[in-house]
Request: fold
Amino acid sequence: MALKLKELCGCEKLFCVGDHANDLPMLLAADRGFAPANAIEEVRSSGVQVVCHCLDGAIADVVEAGFQHSNHVFLRHPVQTPTTLFHQLKESLLCVLI
Reply:
């Protein structure tokens, strides 16, 4: 499913985030897999990049990681709206699956 979405979106890179065993196939298929610090041990030790706890901004950490290797600048801001975040992501050719 994740690879099909990557193809449909025309994304260059597929970033996936997961926290439980059912997410492992998706995480392993991704170009980069991420897990929040509160994920189960099996996921955290599967070779994914572990980011902060989900309540502390794990998705923002994933987005920032995606922008580290692009020409775009991402600034985490406490009043970042989903709309402005979407426009930044759209420009980066980055898919994030939750």
About this structure: The two ends are 12 Å apart (CA to CA). The first helix runs from residue 2 to 9.
